[in-house]
């Protein structure tokens, strides 16, 4: 037995230090050594040995087991910290890691894993299990997770402020979904207000339906309103208590309309039945009217064709139709019977009617046989015969009981129109010749009065020819003027030379007196005067043969002297026009060279306008030169205009694209995005060149209408929203003022909770009202917190006063401290050390004699924080302090120091 003790393995030695040293010689790779290490790690009585064995094995599953089952709390904490380090450093197999995660209930450990895990599946599982918003938000920025996993996490975030921050930081793959969620949140905020407007409008329409719609249209209109109500009713839950009010109003208005509509519909049904009967009577009357018209037409055709036998056969049909009209229930029975009787009378007078129609036919045939006249005389000869035919026609047609057949009347009308056209043609020709002759006679008088006798001889020959072509009545109208001209021609034949000599001498004297000094404005008038004087000289005819040559020479000299200033002026004008030609040639050259260095549309348009303006301001040139120059100028402008047109087309296309982009922006669900897009379009529009005056103006009006429409509507919406917010704020002000007063006087927890419940029951919608409610809630929280602190201070003061009594029981303490009082479970610190720990956490001074002890306690606290990740607070330390039970007399100074920590 003695030898057994000497040769026993060191790991079985009674001394724990020897067993701990023996662990260093064991190899965990050897199966037998591993079994020994396993036995030491979990069954050895010494904590240090178990710790050394665990370190030697260094297996995650063993550390895990030790953290749960080891008897030493320190070793459990060490095992747990080792587990965490291996997990955070990814030293654990994925399957084992997942198993650990599924069984671990420590959220602090799981949170650390969630932040450091690099496997997307495990990380996502941790996040789903923890379900903490702050972790999910951080994970959205983590590249480890897949896009689908991030989208699933994003779906769990509904806080608007958080989403707004995310929209500014997330990449494009998730930004659209964030914007969509923000848009839905905004829509949900606006939904109650919009729903109220829709419901109010629907109820108003329903209430006004009786006045605005007819009884016949009302059932269909009510069905449409009911469909709209059903669609809105599905969304009423978002209005809370108001939903029932709207449902009650709708039911009340619908009931009132149905009660009012029921007798109206019955009355409408009766009216429709009566209208149906009236329509049937009208249809029957129309059918009888059509039959009577058909018989009348057949009778007229028989009469026109003088078919007496066919007309007589219609009598039987007429008799049957009269019987049918007599039995029919129609309104116009009397009128139809009277017309039937008229047709019956016509049938009785068939022979007489046939003879009268034959006479009318004969008139038309005789008139048609008469040829159309080819002269005014022939037209006059046939006038009497035509008048007789027309008179006879009037007599026969007046005595007819029926209207003249249309075909016969049309034939007579056609003949009458043909002869009237002939009459107008001959009359217009005669009037033309008469006007021409009258004009010549008036001209004869003017020339005679002016002394221009030479031309009167030729003029009178024309007068004579026109006068002879006129009829006697038209000649009689011009006889006075014709006789005057004829008599004067006889006189002029003898007095031509006598009259011309003094007139020419007078005209010569006038030309010799004209001044040689003229202003520029008088040049054109002087040239016209000289030209007119030469024409007048030639019209005077021949003067006395002895003076004719001398007068002609003197007159030519006087005209030349009078025109001399004009010749000089016109020569200067010719030179000036030649200079203008050079100017225009230069403009053409400028136009040809202008397009070489111009690329921008604005500069090109400005150059074209300058060239056109210069061309318009250039001086006048001869007409024959101007046409050629203008054609060359237009040809020179063609390349510039083509280039300008191309630039304008590009600008028009770009502006149309901006219009399309603006229209697309108007379809966006978020108004802020629409406004941003429209402002960008406006800036881009400013940078574009002109698209041509007309097209640019049209495009600008379209673009401006889109932008102004949106921004005006938005401004109006903001104004309405502002008014609504002001109205809501005014509505809430009285309630908030009352709650503010109630809060001021509140001094108990029940009073605070009552104010909070009233504030929570409010449903503000506007920003200002929400802010006012939030401010009052903050004020309530602050005051409640101060009250709680005051209550806590009183509670602590009362508890510390009780602790000073040696016979204190747990039931006397506040409920939160009863269970820990005298529990005697504190193993790490004694009451003095806990007092120092409380003073450390509260930054309170400790006695100088305990400075070293304070530093030791501080090191222990830091070690626990580093190893376990726990952060202590005053209340947990106080509970540990109370575990030591009643305060002994020697511990009263410690009690005073603890009291100073909690009571200021």
What is the structure about, briefly put?
The chain has about 900 residues and is mainly alpha-helical. About 80% of the residues lie in helices and about 0% in strands. The longest helix has about 60 residues.
Explain what the structure shows.
The chain has 904 residues and is an all-alpha fold. Among the domains are: 2-186, no CATH class; 429-577, no CATH class; 804-902, no CATH class. The chain has 36 helices and no strands. The chain has helices at residues 2-6, 16-23, 31-43, 47-57, 60-69, 73-88, 94-103, 107-116, 120-130, 133-140, 147-154, 160-169, 172-212, 218-233, 242-304, 308-327, 333-348, 350-369, 376-381, 383-399, 406-450, 456-469, 472-512, 520-539, 545-594, 601-617, 623-666, 671-687, 693-745, 749-761, 767-803, 815-818, 831-841, 851-868, 874-882, 892-902. Helix 2 (16-23) packs parallel to helix 4 (47-57). The model is unreliable at 1-7 (pLDDT under 50).
Lay out the secondary structure.
Blueprint: H1 2-6, H2 16-23, H3 31-43, H4 47-57, H5 60-69, H6 73-88, H7 94-103, H8 107-116, H9 120-130, H10 133-140, H11 147-154, H12 160-169, H13 172-212, H14 218-233, H15 242-304, H16 308-327, H17 333-348, H18 350-369, H19 376-381, H20 383-399, H21 406-450, H22 456-469, H23 472-512, H24 520-539, H25 545-594, H26 601-617, H27 623-666, H28 671-687, H29 693-745, H30 749-761, H31 767-803, H32 815-818, H33 831-841, H34 851-868, H35 874-882, H36 892-902
